[in-house]
Amino acid sequence: MATEADLKSAFISMIQANQGLVNSLCKLYSRSDEEMKDYRQDVLLALWQAFPNFRKESKISTWMYRVGLNTLISNHRKKSSRIVTEPYSEAAELHPSSEAGSDDGLLVLQRAIGMLNPMDKAVVILHLEGYAHKEIADLLGLSETNVSTRLNRIKKQLEKSIKSLEHESI
Questions:
Q1: Which of 21, 93, 94, 153 lies at a 20 to 30 A Cα distance from 4?
Q2: Tens digits of residue pLDDT in 81-101
Q3: CA–CA distance, 160 with 94 (Å, rounded to integer)
């Protein structure tokens, strides 16, 4: 039986090895650096609470992605239930990358993805991360057919959003 010190050490190693995954997931769901930090803290807390029950039936990164994604979607739902309706605005857009030299096309794509609902955003993020349809389905509790259908609809929606966003910037 692992001691609490062993558990803590294993958890810290897991987070250090996968901090990019946690950070990128939180960044995609946040609108500001401050919100990203809050989301990261929420995800890390959820991971810590779930860590003792990790059964090693999947890769650690897959498990972390699922816990993180569920935490972020849950936070979004809680936030949405407090806000009656808020039209899309500059404040509601996806927090753009602060990295120097970011490509304008990438920023437009990030903004368009940020406009998606949380489940569609999760599907497209996982797809862009290289997960297979079956893996996405397993992670999100969907059928493979539903993932394929969603991806086709999302691609069409993103095309429209990107055209609209590019038109705005002209």
A1: 21
A2: 554 433 333 333 444 444 434
A3: 17
